[in-house]
Amino acid sequence: MSIRHLGRLALLLGLLHPAATAADAAPSRPQPNLDTRLLVGEAARADDGAVTAWAGLDVRLGAGWHTYWRSPGEAGAPPQFDWNGSRNVADVTVEWPAPRRFSEQDIDTFGYDEHVLFPLQVRLQDGTAPAHLTLKAVLFVCSTICTQQEVKLEADIAAASHRPNDQALIDAWRQSVPRETAPGLSITALRIVRQPKPQLLIEAQATPPLTAPDVFVDGDDAVSGGRVQVSPTADGGVRIMVQVQGLDQANPAHPLRVTLVDGDRSIEAGLPVNARAGAPPAAKTAGAAAPPASIWTILGVALLGGFILNFMPCVFPVLSLKLVSLVDHDPAHAPSPRPAFLATAAGIIASFVSLAAVLSVLKAAGAQVGWGLQFQQPAFLIAMIVVLAAFGANLLGLFEINLPWWISGRLGSASGRTTMAGHALNGFVMTLLATPCSAPFVGTAVAFALSQAAPQILLVFAALGLGMAAPYLGLAAAPRLAALFPRPGRWMLKLRTLAALAMAATALWLLIVLADISGPTTAMIVAAALLLPALVMTGRRARLRQTLAGAGLAVGIGLALIAATGVQQPNAVGQPAGIAWQPLVPADVAAQVQAGRTVFVDIGASWCLTCKVNEKLVLDSAAVRARLASGVLALRADWTSSSDSIASYLRSFGRYGLPFNVVFGPGAPGGILLPELLTPQIVLDAIDTASTVPQPENHKT
Questions:
Q1: 672 - beta bridge partners?
Q2: Is the N-terminal amide bond of 72 cis, ω within 30° of 0?
Q3: Which among 248, 279, 534 has a CA at the least distance from the CA of 390?
Q4: Segment 411-429, tens digit of pLDDT
């Protein structure tokens, strides 16, 4: 429920307070001292023969009281007018003088204090006959308390009358009604900027200069504007930014009106239903089509994205396990590898469905959701490190897990070979390691799913799992393909050793991530807790010298890799200098773009291997470094640990995972989203497009 609805609920509860309580409090209850009059002005005949008369609802309140504008803000309610009972009246148009803002703590309301006159344009049915105007008005007025006042007023209107009237007073108040043009005041630009959050951008010129401008947004009950942020422009005008609530997911359902008020001056402009018509386009995607909207198309995208996940860097270590299991297959023991492939596929699909269920529950509870966010949790990292270390030790033959005979008899062999449960666990771990990677098409599918309800989340994630499991389902359908692998032999010992090293390297990578999140002490404790039993198991199977040599080698490699992550590599002779990264402040991006700068944004995390690949192969390439050093503002944020601001920034682009790169500039103020896997050419083309200065044009209002 919005603040506006809460405010109106509080107002209604106050109005419904029992009469007895009101009577008891009457001696000390402040009174609005409401005084209303229905004034009548002149009537005039237009060229088409229609007769229009002017009237005015004059409202006077006691000191400290105020009533509301057509859009009351975050509390209160607008006046209500009922013209039933009027005679010879076709319609009545209410004009609204410029409001002012009333701020009570963090709640803003809009209206008028102590005195206001609402000009009324009355169109007569028969211009040759007199008319009778009957008004039943409901006014909501507030001071330290709020109350509802109902008045009934009547007035006679004589057609084309020249008798003394109140037209001068009505005209005086009509001067305070905002129009599309105003002497000495103009709006030169009006558009919505959607990143990092939807904001209304107004550029205005005024003579004399504006002193205390304010902006009011209305026209759609679901959309409201916040307080203004004013900054000068190079041409002597002002730039006004107003945060807009209600535009996070879609454009407004109704046209918006924007009212700029500065003291006695005011001007009004319209913003079309399609906000892009008066605004820069929303973020475009480089090298990809617009996101599809059909659920069936999204399911197809999810299938393709899941299949591509098999080839992402995050999954390579676990794929080595599957390779070992393939070449380790013994036809004499198990005539067909089909059950193993089906078990792996089942583990992958089940893990995706489980992940979807967890995300649905978290989303329903209002928690932050995204792709790969479990890698921000130390407990998850420790569990994965333990599992990977166990896999590596098992591949080296340091220990075997023998299940009870009644389980092993159902799930597989009891001879130490991988059981069906082991294959399913393999698929489960493969899925968990895949989540830091946002492969092509995966981001589109995940963004669609996480913006929908639980059933759609389950469907899309099941499709992702089915896509990732497709190779194993294909091998299960054609198990003879497994016969293409070489026969078992001594070379398998080397393969198992390589697979074990891949497991150890992955565990070491997660230890580094754990050190980034929880500190090096926690990572060292976990490493010691794993290294000690590994040494004991190794000592039982190898000589002391080999054990000590292996331990020294493992510790040395670990220390070298950890040290390497903190060493700044020097630039080679003739290579461009390193990128001068600055911290990302989402609220400052729009101002930098308005100042004519090109902005490159990179968001990564130490647990995102695809981010590291993009950084080493693309962002650190000579061509990209040289381009970023030539007048491009490079901004970077680290999402290794949880951050609500980064999550909100990603969601504003429809993204829920990493890698994330976007380029802004005069030619792309809404941003150009880059794909998950970068190439130097993609980055350079996006920067060139964003840097192109468009032809200047004024935004008419």
A1: 284, 663
A2: no
A3: 534
A4: 444 334 556 777 788 778 7
Asked if residues 95 and 268 have their Cβ atoms less than 8 Å apart, the reply is no
Q: Are 403 and 414 in contact (CB under 8 A)?
A: yes
Contact 160, 550 (CB under 8 A): no
How confident is the model at residue 500, as a pLDDT?
Answer: 79
Q: Which of 410, 276, 287 is nearest to 343 (CA)?
A: 410
The strands making up 199-206's β-sheet, listed across from edge to edge, are: 185-193, 199-206, 238-245, 224-232
State the Cα–Cα distance between residues 573 and 76, nearest whole angstrom: 68
Task: Give yes or no for a contact between 208 and 184, defined as CB atoms under 8 angstroms apart.
Answer: yes
Helix (H, G, I), strand (E, B) or coil at 61: coil
| Rounded distance between C-alpha atoms, residue 41 and residue 54, angstroms | 5
**Sequence-distant (≥ 6) Cβ neighbours of residue 344 within 8 angstroms:** 322, 423, 424, 426, 427, 430, 469, 472
Q: Token digits for 289? A: 């089509």
Q: Give the SS3 label for residue 541.
A: helix
pLDDT tens digits along 61-112: 999 999 999 999 988 899 999 999 999 999 999 999 999 999 887 789 999 9
pLDDT tens column, 633-651: 999 999 998 887 788 788 7
d(CA 483, CA 337): 10
Helix or strand run (H / E) with residue 227: strand 224-232
Tokens representing residue 258 in the block: 């924007």
**Chain-centre distance for alpha carbon 628:** 26
Q: Is the peptide bond before 99 cis (omega within 30 degrees of 0)?
A: no
Cα(230)–Cα(240) distance, rounded to whole angstroms?
Answer: 5
> Per-residue pLDDT for 173 more than 80?
yes
- Residue 312 structure tokens: 């992402």
How confident is the model at residue 487, as a pLDDT? Answer: 58
Q: Which residues contact 24 (CB under 8 A, 6 or more apart)?
A: none
Cα–Cα distance, 203 to 238 (Å, whole number): 6
The single residue listed with the structure tokens 């968001």 is: 603
Q: For the full predicted model, state whether its pTM sits above 0.85.
A: no
Q: CB–CB of 598/690 below 8 Å?
A: yes
Report the C-alpha gap between 411 and 421 in whole angstroms: 6
Residue 493's alpha-carbon distances to 30, 108, 322, 396, 505, in angstroms, are 91, 72, 15, 9, 18
Number of residues in the chain? 701
Task: Please tell me which of 222-231, 460-469, 531-540, 667-676 the model is most confident about, judged by mean pLDDT.
Answer: 460-469
